[in-house]
Design a protein that fits this description.
Blueprint lengths: L10 H13 L13 E4 L12 E5 L4 H10 L3 E4 L16 H12 L2 E4 L2 H5 L4 H9 L20 H14 L32 H4 L11 E8 L10 E13 H11 L8 E2 L10 E11 L1 H4 L6 E6 L2 H9 L3 E4 L7 H30 L4 H8 L4 E4 L24
Parallel strand pairs: 2-3, 2-11, 3-4, 8-9, 9-10
Antiparallel strand pairs: 1-4, 5-6, 6-8, 7-10
């Protein structure tokens, strides 16, 4: 047997792929558009083999590819497929193709589970449902909308009216309407901020998931996959008792990594503090295809378009979006890392024994299959393209949402 094999992936890659398929069979994925499975099968070179490690990421960007190469990972499990359609060529001039070629050169394979994770029982949809049905230490904190500060334009107008009413008998000069203050030409903005998904930070959350009494149902069921009864896309949560919207906002913030902010849409004429939620439609990522037509008080997803959100609020619904991938990324460190580690240890033991028994091995191959190590880590460079920038020097905190 030659020491360099161009027609086989590493045995550890085989173990990772079989583990992911046990957890999230590709048959669960939305076959109408998705591209799941082993997208890049890198040849195995036992002389310069990679570590027995897996890097979990939502998006396989150039930064994440650099990270995997630096770490010498064997497999990148990228939730979003880096390959959606067929290629007519593979060139270094295309950023995504460049990452694929560089990973292949280093012997790093790529697997994408995508919507199979969305649909699986205990998968991404259920994780988001666990967050909204979680509970924070009693008394559960209430979120309040920001009120204008004393010198904001809204309060200036109110002060002017007050001064005018109380000084009716004063000379005209005394009741002259004050001028609006000029806005400073120079402002200080915060750096873009992103939710934290490092295990050390996620572990600090005091949210007790799925602890509020409720029922949940699958919105779009997936059937015919043995052992995965109850699979499907989206979840409809119905609380036994209505929950204040402010409590759900707090739960979501704690559950997805404490972002500095996220979009919230409510019907005009309503106040956030007055809204009660009995039902929640949940879907990760771009949720319109799953949530359209769902009768729920709150739609909780990664993103909706302007017109989709507007249509929902016109019907009296509320909407919370997190920026697309922020509704997905926390799942990697909260759920997938531990699950994959457990299954992979068993699968790697099985594959090692199969290879050792079936083939006459060179010393390099023997070293590879004798290595019992298994490591699964989350990318430290993966993030949503959008961060939240806060205008720090502005005195305007925000107009009350109503």
């Amino acid at each position: 047997m030659s020491t360099y094999t161009t027609d086989k992936a590493s045995p550890f890659t085989r173990a990772v792929v079989s583990s992911m398929r046990k957890l999230y069979p590709e048959a669960l994925a939305d076959q109408s558009f998705d591209n799941t499975g082993l997208l890049l099968e890198a040849p195995f070179d036992p002389i310069r083999r990679q570590m027995n490690s897996v890097l979990l990421t939502i998006d396989l960007t150039k930064a994440v590819a650099d990270e995997a190469i630096e770490r010498k990972d064997c497999v990148v499990v990228a939730y979003h497929p880096i390959i959606f359609r067929g290629f007519k060529s593979l060139t270094l001039s295309d950023c995504q193709q460049q990452s694929i070629l560089r990973l292949a050169l280093e012997g790093i394979s790529v697997y994408s589970p995508h919507t199979a994770v969305d649909a699986a029982p205990g998968g991404l949809a259920d994780w988001l449902a666990d967050i909204v049905t979680g509970h924070l230490p009693s008394p559960e904190p209430a979120t309040h909308t920001a009120r204008p500060q004393k010198n904001s334009p809204e309060t200036i107008e109110e002060d002017v009216k007050s001064e005018t009413n109380t000084a009716a008998d004063q000379p005209v000069e005394a009741t002259k309407k004050p001028q609006r203050p000029r806005m400073a030409m120079q402002r200080t903005y915060s750096k873009p901020t992103y939710p934290s998904h490092r295990p050390v930070d996620v572990g600090k959350t005091d949210l007790n998931p799925s602890s509020v009494d409720h029922t949940r149902a699958v919105i779009n069921p997936v059937t015919g996959v043995e052992g995965f009864e109850g699979a499907g896309f989206g979840r409809l949560v119905t609380f036994d008792e209505s929950q204040p919207l402010t409590h759900l906002v707090e739960r979501i913030a704690h559950g997805v990594g404490s972002p500095k902010g996220f979009p919230l849409a409510i019907p005009q004429g309503k106040q956030v503090e007055d809204i009660q939620i009995r039902t929640v439609g949940v879907s990760a990522g771009s949720g319109h295809s799953v949530l359209k037509g769902v009768e729920a008080d709150l739609l909780f997803t990664g993103e909706l378009s302007h017109h989709e959100a507007l249509a929902a609020t016109e019907k009296g619904q509320c909407v919370i979006t997190l920026f697309h991938s922020n509704s997905e990324r926390g799942f990697l460190s909260n759920v997938l890392k531990e699950k994959l580690t457990g299954v992979l240890k068993e699968e790697w033991e099985r594959v090692r024994n199969e290879v050792a028994e079936a083939e006459e091995l060179t010393p390099e191959w023997e070293d590879a299959v004798k290595d019992e190590d298994v490591l699964v880590e989350c990318s430290e460079r993966d993030r949503d393209p959008f961060g939240v920038v806060i205008l720090q020097s502005s005195k305007q905190e925000g107009k009350p949402l109503s």
